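Colleagues,

For the teaching module next term, I've prepared a clean inverse folding example: a structure given as tokens, and then the sequence designed for it. I'd like students to try predicting residues themselves before seeing the answer, so please don't circulate the second half yet.
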């Protein structure tokens, strides 16, 4: 799952949200240096990522990108799932995604002093370009795929990934549909038991 799903699966808890969103910048036991609720967000993020990677629908979905992107196929699926979540009327109707996105940016701003420096540097761009909302649009997904390539050590292009996304759109949407209800239930239960 990418930023939108991690934000959504923080269940409107600000400290959980902060840890959940910047978790990728926290390695191993570094999580111990954060306040307890923020640390719960970091651990929730890790549990979500593990569950996502092991889910049968995700394993199948990754096969679409694997021949061209190998290990990075997971990153493209994460972005793809955020696109379908952004357009999922079970979770976001009318203008609620826009409202949700702005609430997330406002909430995160209050935790910037505890965020890792790389996340603090990224945050203004996330807010300015409204990354969370723009997962809804195919142009936003295309830019997000470019971001995956930019942050990778070995990839050189994202056009193939975007073409695969377009060509397999309905199949990928079905993988999301098969996956996300179970993910939602898992994340809620995991958080309750922390």
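(Answer key — instructors only)
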């Amino acid at each position: 799952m990418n930023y939108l799903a991690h934000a959504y699966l923080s269940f409107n808890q600000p400290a959980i949200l902060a840890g959940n969103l910047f978790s990728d910048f926290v390695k191993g036991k570094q999580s111990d240096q954060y306040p307890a609720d923020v640390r719960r967000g970091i651990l929730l993020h890790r549990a979500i990522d593990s569950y996502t990677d092991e889910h049968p629908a995700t394993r199948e979905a990754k096969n679409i990108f694997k021949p061209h992107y190998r290990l990075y196929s997971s990153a493209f699926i994460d972005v793809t799932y955020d696109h379908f979540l952004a357009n999922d009327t079970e979770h976001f109707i009318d203008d609620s995604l826009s409202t949700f996105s702005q609430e997330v940016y406002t909430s995160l701003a209050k935790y910037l002093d505890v965020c890792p420096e790389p996340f603090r540097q990224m945050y203004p761009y996330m807010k300015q370009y409204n990354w969370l909302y723009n997962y809804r649009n195919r142009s936003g997904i295309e830019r997000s795929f470019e971001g995956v390539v930019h942050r990778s050590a070995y990839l050189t292009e994202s056009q193939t990934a975007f073409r695969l996304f377009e060509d397999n759109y309905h199949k990928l949407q079905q993988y999301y549909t098969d996956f996300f209800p179970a993910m939602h239930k898992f994340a809620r239960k995991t958080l309750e038991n922390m």
